[in-house]
Model the fold of this input.
Amino acid sequence: MQAEVEETLKRIQSHKGVMGTMVVNAEGIPIRTTLDNSTTVQYAGLLHQLTMKAKSTVRDIDPQNDLTFLRIRSKKHEIMVAPDKEYLLIVIQNPCE
Amino acid sequence: MEIVYVYVKKRSEFGKQCNFSDRQAELNINIPPNPELAEQFVERNPVDTGIQCSTSMSEHEVNTERFEMESRGINHVEGGWPKDVNPLELEQTIRFRKKVEKDENYINAITQLGSIMEHCIKQNNAIDIYQEYFDDEDAVEVTDEAPSAKTINVLRDPQEIKRSATHLSWHPDGNRKLAVAYSCLNFQRAPEGMSHESYIWDLENPNKPEIVLKPSSPLVTLEYNPKDSHVLLGGCYNGQLACWDTRKGSLVAELSTIEFSHRDPVYGSIWLQSKTGTECFSASTDGQVMWWDIRKMSEPTEVVILDIARKEQLENALGAISLEFESTLPTKFMVGTEQGIVISCNRKAKTSAEKIVCTFSGHHGPIYALQRNPFYPKNFLTVGDWTARIWSEDSRESSIMWTKYHMAYLTDGAWSPVRPAVFFTTRMDGTLDIWDFVFKQCDPALSLKVCDEALFCLRVQDNGCFIACGSQLGTTTLLEVSNGLCTLQKNDKNAASLIFERETRREKILEARHREMRLKEKGKAEGRDDSLREEEPTFHLEELVTKAEDEFFNIIYSELKKKETEAMKKTKPKQPGLEADEEVEGEDLGEEEGDGAQAPT
Done:
């Protein structure tokens, strides 16, 4: 079971354009990360707040709805956040070809 | 208006109870109705009144007070670790992480999230959603669009004692910053305690200037060094030249010695094209043009005195108000003077007398702006007194094109760096005019009232889109011009060059004719006797006077006669109709009286 997790994360990291992957828990503690600590901590803190805000926005508009995925496209890269009840999977990809 | 009524009451009477008592009704006045007054009124039937059935609305303006904001960053530190785990201890954190990784929830969550994530990643790699699909189509010609400009930003002088913005300079790369020189140009009327500071503004933050420059005397001009964007050159009110390096701070990096500087405010300062990028030159109303090297500001490297008699006399020199230098013609430069003459000079001349090549006169007042056309350097624009004129180097007697005389003084002007036929001018009534002589020659293509006070200076950004103008109270307004005025049209260059050539040719023909006429006059005058020449003027004078008087009276008599005949014509056709008119009038009167009798009943 754990091996599956490892495999999944490795596969994600090996995709074209992926700059970094990290798994953060609900308290903001980085569980797994491929970037350095300070960057991870920064991403974890900021994206957690943003995900919570996005989730509450979706639920406010329609209480039966829920946030499944969050994508932030910026000039330099795209930040993708997959939220879960306790964990956040964050991937930073550079999509331009 | 405040109406104040003061009344005095005894302290002991405060709080006294009011004693009300009943009283019989009293008849004060009894005015019975007077039916005779009704005869002064006439009943009107029907009556026209306007009625409107709509919701009544009122207009109300609200403006919030300016809110001071500051940008700050947040420093994220690691946290959230449970109490028993010390985040600094590597072992403990690793142990914690391993524990979490063994959690079943974790495994399920990650596998699920992982598949969603992979889907999105693959999506990104498959299609670039921002791909340009219509690259092949060129930008559509926007000639039909009406020219317009809108204000984007306003930068206000934060000082309480307002000074005028006298010069603007855009940052050489990126155009994100604007350097503004503030000073009070009224002679000896600078108020006490006026600050000498000038600012560099960052357009992202219009509330507070980014860098403050502190000279010892207010700056009249300020220019960024086009080669090194950290270095600025400023000309002071007291005639000195100062140099700043923004990396070093707000105090002056280099200052010219006062003995060798100008004796009047420095009105023009421009950087020169040189290998070292440290050379500049300045001009002032004391009649001198000085060349400097900023590495050694103690003395100017060269001085030229603007004496058009070519005798190097400082007393006869003309005061310079504007300076022009084009990097494509590095040996030539032009000076606009207070006396309304443009002097074209050659820097490389051997003797100082030869430096002054030629002069162009035509303005009635100081020439506040002088600039060569970036596309056709032979033609240059001058702005002064109430007109803006375009000159060609070939025609020295007069300008080839000029605007009409405006109601307000023109203070500054500039060509558009993108379109050869477009130029901008500012006026003392706060208006910015955008002229496009390919489109319209008599009036500006667009005239905008930027602010209520006078506009003093103008600077166009290199892309031709943004214009900054500085006003008398220190407010700098940033405007964005519509696309049509800042994109080069297909036949713009040709049309502009045709117009320039045509006007130059016309001026040349006129010049030639004038010369011929002058020669003829000279020939005639020399042919006559001297004595006759003296008497003729007086003889002519009396004759002319009597002739003028006769003409005048003749005109008056003929006008009077005309009026009389017309009056006669008007009265004649009326006579047969007069009797009919009187009958009609009589009927009306009768009707009114009848009505009046009916009304009271």
In short: Chain A touches chain B through 41 residues (CB under 8 Å). The CA atoms of residues 16 and 32 of chain A lie 20 Å apart. The beta strands of chain A are 18-25, 30-33, 70-73, 78-83, 87-93. The radius of gyration of chain A is 14 Å.
